[in-house]
Write a structure and sequence with these properties.
Largest sheet: 9 strands, mixed
CATH topology of the domain at 96-319 and 416-483: TIM Barrel
Distance between the termini: 39 Å
Helix content: 25-40%
Radius of gyration: 23 Å
Number of strands: 21
CATH class of the domain at 96-319 and 416-483: Alpha Beta
Structural class: alpha/beta
Length: about 550
């Protein structure tokens, strides 16, 4: 199939349905290919590139020798190789590591259709990340994702997924599976013990930590005490705590404190009480802004770090976020995929309409762009206001119709200030991350961050605005996330490390994806190796995939 072909979900299903039916009957058969063993000293030599090793070290021009999946030599290499990559005039970096993705949800939320990934190179290859220079992703973020590591890794392994994958145990969905629709706020001793055993089980399987989504149901029901107890379990396995915090906005509470400040304090307290490293997910300030000061946020983190607590945060270089449209509603309406059944009744819809009209007074409907709406694909790429105007309805009426779907549509929310993004970015404890997901080419209208996060940061904020050094930006994408998430042998160019390597042209590195035309691959990654497998060659995906599901050791 031509992966550049314009597709809708319906036409794609028509073209691949027969093949999927065969799979369903026959099961999946792994592809096994033989290869002749080389007598050369190296499989690949990358020659003459300016190497940024992933740390703050000064870059230098050296050659890199690779055998199998490993960097085996650095320096001026004269040995033989099966292939030589001429990197003169280019920079060479470790493959980028994205610690905050939802790549697993592309499989989990598509049901049987996930098997179609086998027939679509852009899907199984995770091309939207490869073209950015990303070789490793972390899934299970925001409390969502696969609750059984073995199930998710079995899928990734069976299709030879294009990038390496690490996984976090998703607190919210585990809680939902354990305690059902009527979620308790305060867990009984027996319930907490059951929860702790499940988290320990997933850590035993190889998760690298656990994540929460405290603005989403069912995570929003959790108490700080519950999270501390679960964090203590994860700490025993040298895992970490990654959190989408309870309130990322400048909302002012009755005590005069901003929601974002309260939330950072809670995250730090969990780390302090459990003795566990903390990763604050997609650090930002969302509307209402109310003049919330990013410096106050950073001071909290820096004070914790001065105390010896391992607190870091990640960030995407955009002033817009993305999640389900029901994110806009007050907490009492929410479920993990939409709204509670009681609000799908005639009376419930009236209450929901009244609630969202109050929300729209400050968070305007023209600031919410629908990106994925399987039941009405024609509305993707339009704002709620545009849809309402075209249908002769109130924005609140359109919203309610969306919210009551079996699974609420996804949307982009333009509720942030780019100057806050700039204020946070240069700190040396801020990691680069997309908060994106695997995207089959030309399906839905996703946030452009799924295609452009890493090149955008380099092009706009490093090369053009000079907001931070190139060395610092690369570190935020490589060794810093590798160290924080305990990824052994990754994130640095060093002898004995895995050959996850990007060769980049600084003249052309850029993102092309936009909010109205997101399906555009980034440019400038000339070569990309994933565990020694050449996945991008002269700027184009090869179709060869070297990714691995990786368990915590």
């Amino acid at each position: 199939m031509n992966t550049d072909e314009k597709l809708t979900r319906k036409t794609f299903l028509e073209k691949t349905g027969k093949a999927a039916a065969v799979l369903a009957v026959a099961g999946s058969v792994p592809l096994v290919t033989g290869c002749k063993k080389s007598e050369a000293e190296f499989d690949i030599i990358i020659k003459g590139g300016t190497v940024y090793d992933g740390t703050f070290a000064k870059p230098k021009v050296i050659d890199i020798g690779i055998k199998g999946d490993t960097i085996t030599a650095l320096g001026e290499l004269t040995g033989t190789a099966d292939a030589i990559i001429d990197a003169k005039g280019l920079i060479v970096t470790p493959g980028f590591i994205d610690v905050h993705t939802h790549c697993d949800l592309t499989f989990k939320r598509t049901g049987w259709q996930r098997h179609l990934a086998r027939f679509m190179p852009s899907w199984k290859g995770n091309y939207n990340y490869l073209y950015q220079g990303v070789t490793t992703v972390v899934t299970g973020n925001c409390g969502y994702g696969y609750t059984d590591l073995n199930e998710w890794f079995g899928i990734a392994d069976s299709i030879d997924f294009g990038t390496n994958v690490y996984h976090l145990a998703p607190h919210g969905i585990i809680r939902e599976e354990l305690f059902g629709e009527k979620q308790p706020r305060d867990l009984s001793a027996a319930q907490l013990d059951q929860f702790k055993k499940k988290v320990a089980e997933e850590m035993e399987k190889g998760c690298i930590g656990f994540s929460t989504g405290l603005e989403y149901a069912p995570g929003l029901y959790s108490t700080t005490a519950e999270l501390i107890e679960l964090a203590k379990v994860v700490q025993k396995y040298d895992g970490l705590y990654a959190t989408h915090m309870r309130d990322e906005s400048g909302k002012i509470y009755d005590d005069g404190e901003f929601g974002i400040i309260k939330s950072i304090k809670e995250a730090i307290e969990i780390g302090r009480q459990a003795g566990i490293p903390v990763e604050i997910s997609h650090l930002k300030i969302s509307a209402p802004l109310n003049n919330a000061n990013p410096e106050s946020m950073l001071e909290l983190i820096e004070q914790a770090r001065r105390e010896g607590l391992e607190v870091t945060a990640d960030q995407y270089p955009y002033a817009a976020g993305s999640t389900q449209v029901t994110f806009l509603l007050p907490n009492e309406f929410k479920t993990s995929i939409g709204v509670k059944d009681e609000y799908k009744t005639k009376e419930g819809r009236v209450k929901m309409k009244e609630a969202i009209e109050k929300v729209f007074e400050t968070l305007k409907p023209e600031k919410t762009l629908i990106t994925m709406y399987p039941e009405r694909e024609e509305l993707e790429g339009k704002t709620i206001k545009e849809i309402a105007d075209s249908e002769g309805k109130k924005p609140s009426e359109v919203f309610v119709e969306m919210a009551v779907e079996d699974q609420a549509p996804m949307a982009v929310f333009f509720f942030q200030d780019i100057n806050v993004v700039r204020a946070l970015m240069p700190r040396d404890y801020i990691l680069t991350a997309s908060d994106g997901w695997t995207v089959p080419k030309d399906m839905t209208k996703p946030h452009p961050r799924v295609y452009g996060t890493f090149p955008k940061k380099i092009r706009q904020f490093v090369l053009e605005e000079k907001l931070m050094s190139l060395t610092g930006a690369i570190r935020s994408m490589t060794s810093l996330p590798a160290e924080k998430f305990r990824m052994k042998g990754r994130g640095r160019i060093a002898e004995g490390n895995f050959a996850d390597i990007a060769v980049i042209n600084l003249e052309t590195i850029t993102d092309h994806a936009t909010f109205t035309d997101p399906h555009q691959y980034s440019e400038g990654v000339e070569y990309l190796l994933v565990n020694g497998v050449l996945s991008i060659d002269k700027g184009k995906a090869t179709g060869d995939r070297g990714g691995r599901p990786i368990r915590r050791v």
